[in-house]
């Protein structure tokens, strides 16, 4: 009974607080774009793209911002800004324009007992993972090959499969190695089973809550929603698995001279461990915040969910584009053979030589926006005024139109054409472009879907190398084509501000004869 009244009091307090906040929030002084006629929730869910397209044509293309309904706060407007504001936004601190708050609003994780992104997660990705990638390629390739062997049935003739579950399991195998190391992350380990189960409920649970609960009742979800309860259960089991690992790293730290120093730079010395557990431990040493097994598993899981789901979706998008452009596949295969013959093993420099594959992947990202219509999302933590006088009230979400920017003819000539060498030509135009316009580039403003500035996607380099390893094996060992009878099935499915490849679309696959 006490628990009931405590929850009831919490709900009432939350409602009152939200009403007060809504009353006090300043007005966003921008043209509000909405549907004519049917302006229902269902229409926003299915057709937000048409509103963004209208706003882009009428306002963004003329250098003006506009407002649209915020999908995370349906009674509040969201500001959509032209890229002329990007330089003012991308390096502002969290205390002014917050990316973490946007992610939390979008996922509702903090309100349903899920893990949250934080400073330690960012440090671990930027100064742990990205530094370690240079010598993780070989074990990642081994994990990739093992996953193919385990998950893909023998297919000497054309065999129907759903590629999305296969892609998820391939990336899950590589991710487990990165997250918890080769021992705990081995194939068929308890961690592999737990992380796969967690990924599923972490995708379905928050979505069910957002679709069926008013936001002021989100905090009841851990008591009433099966998927959210399972998230909590898996989190507890994960903490138990990671506790011995954390103690091992604490003991080892007394003997190691390597740690993340002030400013995030790794000091000299040889690392004994290279995985997210170690990088997060080092990050907490830097910030001085305590690291418990429960905190550790939350941070490991949030990295895993963020990287695994998005990378798998991008991988499926690239695969669909390969199915639509077989002429490019032949050239990519020739490139793989040529580069492989020149290198004894796959390394980061060797993967960087796959320039046609890289350009193809970037073109796919350009057209599909890395599965999102918007980019560089922030929430104003304080009222923020730009140099030209545009003011964003505190609590308002602002975004940039990443999808439409990628298909703007003033940015990309002939944008409707899938030109798989578009970005390779850019790299070859000028000597200073040699290290620009590759798949994971976030510094050039022709594609902004990776984000920008302090919150450009920290895991994009891992995604780049993991995708290349997956496609190297797929293109080398298999042929593939669309299954008959799938012509009417949509290749991509729109939902609010996301454009996801259809995970239910089957394809046909068969083994290739590999010479040598």
């Amino acid at each position: 009974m006490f628990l009931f009244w405590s929850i009831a009091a919490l709900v009432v307090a939350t409602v009152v607080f939200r009403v007060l906040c809504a009353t006090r929030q300043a007005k966003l002084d921008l043209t509000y774009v909405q549907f004519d006629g049917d302006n229902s929730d269902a229409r926003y869910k299915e057709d937000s793209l048409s509103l963004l397209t209208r706003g882009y044509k009428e306002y963004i293309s003329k250098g003006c911002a506009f407002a649209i309904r915020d999908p995370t706060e349906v009674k509040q407007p969201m500001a959509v800004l032209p890229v002329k504001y990007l330089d003012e936004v991308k390096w502002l601190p969290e205390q002014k324009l917050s990316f973490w708050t946007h992610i939390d609003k979008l996922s509702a994780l903090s309100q349903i007992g899920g893990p949250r992104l934080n400073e330690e997660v960012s440090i671990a990705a930027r100064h742990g993972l990205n530094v370690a990638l240079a010598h993780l390629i070989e074990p990642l390739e081994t994990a990739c090959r093992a996953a193919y062997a385990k998950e893909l049935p023998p297919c000497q003739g054309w065999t129907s499969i759903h590629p999305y579950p296969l892609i998820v399991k391939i990336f899950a195998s590589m991710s487990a190695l990165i997250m918890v190391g080769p021992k705990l992350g081995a194939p068929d380990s308890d961690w592999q089973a737990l992380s796969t189960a967690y990924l599923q409920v972490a995708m379905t649970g928050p979505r069910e809550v957002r679709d069926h609960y008013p936001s002021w009742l989100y905090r009841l979800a851990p008591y009433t929603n099966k998927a959210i309860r399972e998230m909590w259960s898996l989190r507890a089991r994960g903490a138990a698995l990671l506790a011995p690992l954390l103690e091992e790293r604490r003991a080892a730290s007394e003997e190691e001279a390597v740690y993340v120093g002030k400013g995030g730079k790794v000091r000299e010395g040889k690392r004994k461990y290279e995985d997210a557990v170690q990088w997060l431990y080092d990050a907490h040493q830097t910030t001085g915040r305590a690291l418990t097994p429960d905190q550790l598993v939350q941070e490991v899981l949030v990295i895993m969910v963020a990287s695994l789901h998005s990378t798998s979706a991008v991988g499926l998008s690239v695969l669909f584009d390969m199915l639509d452009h077989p002429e490019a596949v032949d050239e990519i295969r020739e490139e793989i053979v040529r580069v492989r013959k020149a290198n004894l093993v796959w390394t980061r420099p060797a993967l960087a030589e796959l320039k046609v594959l890289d350009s193809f992947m970037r073109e796919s990202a350009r057209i599909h926006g890395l599965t999102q219509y918007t980019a560089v999302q922030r929430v104003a933590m304080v009222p923020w005024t730009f140099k030209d006088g545009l003011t964003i009230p505190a609590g308002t979400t602002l975004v940039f139109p990443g999808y439409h920017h990628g298909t703007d003819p003033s940015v990309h000539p002939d944008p409707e054409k899938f030109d798989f060498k578009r970005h390779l030509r850019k790299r070859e135009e000028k000597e200073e472009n040699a290290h620009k316009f590759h798949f994971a580039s976030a510094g050039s403003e022709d594609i902004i879907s990776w984000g920008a500035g302090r919150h450009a996607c920290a895991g994009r380099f891992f995604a780049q190398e993991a995708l290349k390893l997956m496609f190297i094996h797929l293109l080398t060992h298999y042929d593939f084509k669309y299954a008959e009878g799938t012509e009417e099935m949509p290749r991509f499915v729109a939902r609010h501000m996301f454009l996801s490849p259809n995970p239910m679309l089957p394809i046909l696959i068969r083994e290739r004869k590999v010479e040598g």
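The domain at 112-372+412-445+449-511 is CATH 1.10.630.10 (Cytochrome p450). Confidence is low (pLDDT under 50) at residues 1-24.
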